[in-house]
What does this fold into?
Amino acid sequence: MTPSTDSQGRRLGLALFWVYVALYGGFIALVLVRPDLLSLRPFGGVNLAIACGMGLIAAAFGLALFSLVLRGRES
It folds into this structure.
């Protein structure tokens, strides 16, 4: 891995980190501003809080896979 490729990988990692921070911040804002919405059950019995939590986990895996695919193209 060359220094420029390593630097690009770090920038990508930081960018994806901030994307996840924004998603998590949105969830926390929802918890603070409208906690009543989290008790809704739009997905058949699973409340919105659980669905959002699972969505955050899925987003973390998705961003990690996205990073791996992009980093694989660099080498």
